[in-house]
Design brief:
The complex is a heterodimer of chains A (404) and B (231). Chain A has 2 domains: 197 residues, no CATH class; 178 residues, no CATH class. Chain A is an alpha+beta fold and 404 residues long. In chain A, a hairpin with a 4-residue loop joins β2 and β3. Chain A is elongated and about 100 Å long. Chain A contains 15 helices and 12 strands. By secondary structure, chain B is an alpha/beta fold. Chain B has one domain: P-loop containing nucleotide triphosphate hydrolases (Rossmann fold), CATH 3.40.50. In chain B, 35% of the residues lie in helices and 30% in strands. Chain B is built from 7 helices and 10 strands. A 6-stranded mixed β-sheet of chain B has the order 6-7-8-3-9-10, with helices on both faces. Chain B has a 4-stranded antiparallel β-sheet with strand order 2-1-4-5. In chain B, α3 packs across α4, α3 packs parallel to α5 and α5 runs parallel beside α6. The longest helix of chain B is centred in the last third of the chain and has 18 residues. Classes of the chains: A alpha+beta (404), B alpha/beta (231). At the A-B interface, α1, α11 and α15 of A face α2, β6 and α3 of B.
């Protein structure tokens, strides 16, 4: 019955309740779109990093992550390869040589990270092949290289041009080779594009005198929720002379940023909530003072203060829930097409690129986002009604009945 | 022998109006017995409603005491007073004061909800009482869809549905025409007779005063005259 009274009470001043509901709904829509867009941006940053190079898990010789020199090549490569291929959760893997080096064109030179790859394996692990904007991907031919479009612009070269790559080989001498640019790629990160160049695995091994060895094995899992289990299985199988790193360990700042984002969304909700709470307090105070005589009667016939407070809080809860659900439905129908088409932020593409995000952001709605939207604002509405409810409860029945 | 149900001793109430003390009651000694049909009469401002509010535990006296079933109300907490009002008292107000968002049936049922009576039992008792009072056709009407007399009948039903010991009726006929008022008083007299519910009225309506079996006439916050009327 208390629920029934509270429900009917909110429709006594229909216009006022509708205004509160609309303001709650607008708050929810704004919050939902901001949250999904921000979350989408953060996840895109992470996915771009995973997709462009990092993968889900990397296996190295112990110490390689801190000191990426050719001497830290992966010991017993075939043992690692066999173990990885025996792990059912590992969907794809790619072996790479990685070293710092220098590339020069006729016009300029630049410090780079030279990555030797097996083109067929790599195209399943990373998005480099899909990121080509000119020319073609590495083929079976010798001495091909693909470079970032930004780097090519810096060096003043294009598809078909030759560059010279130099790096310190395993035996300490400077290995060098001439490569022909067969393709230019462009990822979501302009910084990445300026640094990474890709050459065939065999040529890089020859240039670095690696004799068939590699620097790392990058692995993509079927289910990334199994990240920890796969890491543990690899560590158990390989022993202490290897390091098995997951992407949160390789990208700690990005993961930290995601955590910070979750917390910053709570702050955002709090700001929206503070703006709404005053509207709720105002509405509930008006509603309470208008009905003071009625509260006096309710107390006179034996209603306890606790029930009176609950009744008023329920009214605020209904306003909050209706506004939140309505706002969520509206927000969801705005979100839904945007999650497929993305939001085009090309006017900010330069700064987004330096953050490793593309110009088109795909909003992402998560269970957390749904719960935040549907729980936090109704809770704030209830908090906003506490003062008016206590105010009503404090009046003596006679004083309440005489209240004008 | 009559059973005492309410007693007031040297009851005083002083209000402050804009800092000026107003003596609403100046030492009222009163005994109400089980089954009384008692009228507190007097002109406006004589303290009738104040006395009724103090008896009902809706207000606290400045001095003196109210005993309900020999228990001093000043010793009860707010929650205990609420429980007492819920279980032992019924109120009928001049302005009916039904809950506007509830139908007649729900208004009557509400006090039983507060008492925690199970739904099936509630529904049956409300229907029986409404039929008994001849207001069953009003069951699904909201207060604004009823006349003043109909609302007051529903208010009486709300007051007696919990089988209270005492019903306090503050100017119950003041907003009704004389025919409707007489019919309402008939109803309350019947409830007094059949259910032995004690009725205490505050009124200056002659037809209420005529029906009272005991009369206390208040003037300037004091009992000016007491009458025992045999009917």
């Amino acid at each position: 019955m208390l629920l029934k009274i509270a429900w009917r009470n909110i429709w006594r001043q229909r216009r006022r309740s509708v205004i509160v509901i609309i303001s709650v709904a607008i708050g929810i829509v704004a919050t939902l779109l901001t949250e999904t867009l921000s979350r989408g941006m953060m996840l895109q940053m992470l996915e771009n990093q995973i997709g462009s190079h990092v993968a889900h898990i990397q296996v190295h010789r112990k110490g390689f992550e801190a000191n990426q020199v050719v001497q830290n090549y992966l010991p017993a490569r075939t043992k690692v390869e066999r173990l990885v291929s025996e792990i059912p959760e590992a969907e794809y893997y790619s072996e790479r040589t990685i070293t710092f080096g220098l590339i020069s064109s006729a016009r300029s030179s630049s410090g780079v990270t030279i990555v030797g790859i097996d083109p067929r394996r790599e195209e399943r692990v990373t998005t480099i092949e899909k990121s080509l904007v000119a020319g073609q991907y590495l083929s079976a031919r010798r001495n091909e290289v693909i470079v970032g479009k930004k780097l090519a612009e810096k060096l003043g070269v294009g598809v078909g041009d030759k560059i010279v790559a130099m790096a310190t080989a395993l035996d300490g001498h400077i290995g060098s080779d001439v490569f022909r640019i067969v393709g230019l790629y462009e990822t979501f990160s302009s910084e990445f594009d300026k640094v990474y160049i890709y050459v065939p695995l065999k040529e890089s091994q020859e240039m670095l005198a690696l004799d068939g060895d590699v620097s790392e094995v990058a692995i993509i899992l079927r289910d990334r929720n199994r990240l920890d289990q796969v890491q543990q299985a690899l560590e158990r199988g390989l022993g202490g002379s290897y390091e098995v790193l997951t992407y949160p360990e390789i990208l700690p700042f990005l993961v930290l940023q995601l955590d910070l984002f979750q917390e910053s969304m709570l702050v955002f909700y709090a700001i929206i909530g503070i703006a709404l709470i005053f509207g709720i307090i105002n509405t509930m105070l008006m509603s309470v003072f208008e009905r003071m005589t009625e509260f006096g009667v309710l107390k006179a016939i034996g209603m306890r203060n606790g029930r009176l407070v609950v009744m008023i809080l329920l009214e605020a809860l209904f306003l909050g829930v209706i506004g939140s659900v309505g706002g969520f439905v509206v927000g969801y129908f705005i979100y839904l097409p945007l999650s497929h088409s993305g939001v085009n932020l090309s006017m900010f593409s330069a700064s987004l690129n330096s953050f490793g995000v593309g110009a088109i952001i795909y909003p992402v709605l998560t269970v957390d986002g749904v719960l935040n939207a549907l729980l936090i604002i109704p809770l704030i509405a209830v908090l906003g009604a506490i003062y008016p409810a206590l105010k009503a409860a404090r009046f003596e029945p006679v004083a309440a009945m005489r209240y004008v | 022998m009559a059973t005492e149900i309410i007693r007031t001793e040297s009851l005083e109430k002083v209000y402050s109006e804009n800092g000026v003390p107003v003596h609403a009651l100046r030492g009222i000694d009163l005994v109400v017995n089980k089954g009384d049909f008692l009228v507190i009469a007097g002109p406006s401002g004589s303290g009738k409603t104040t006395l009724l509010n103090l008896i009902g535990g809706l207000d606290t006296p400045t001095r003196g005491a109210v005993y309900f079933e020999r228990e001093d109300l000043s010793r009860k907490s707010d929650a205990e007073l609420s429980t007492m009002r819920l279980h032992k008292l019924g109120f009928v107000f001049q302005a009916y004061n039904l809950i506007p968002v509830l139908t007649a049936r729900e208004n009557i049922e509400f006090t039983m909800v507060l008492m925690g009576v199970p739904e099936r039992q509630r529904t049956q008792r409300v229907l029986d009482l409404m039929r008994d009072l001849g207001i069953d056709e009003l069951a699904e009407k909201r207060p604004h869809e009823m006349s003043g007399g109909q609302q007051q009948r529903v208010a009486v039903a709300r007051a007696i549905i919990t089988d209270p010991s005492v019903v306090l009726a503050d100017e119950p006929t003041a907003n009704l025409d004389s025919t409707t008022g007489a019919s309402l008083l008939d109803l309350m007299e019947r409830m007094n007779r059949e259910k032995n519910i004690t009725f205490i009225f505050s009124s200056h309506d002659p037809q209420v005063i005529q029906r009272g079996r005991r009369l206390f006439l208040l003037r300037d916050g004091k009992i000016d005259r007491k009458e025992e009327l045999s009917r």
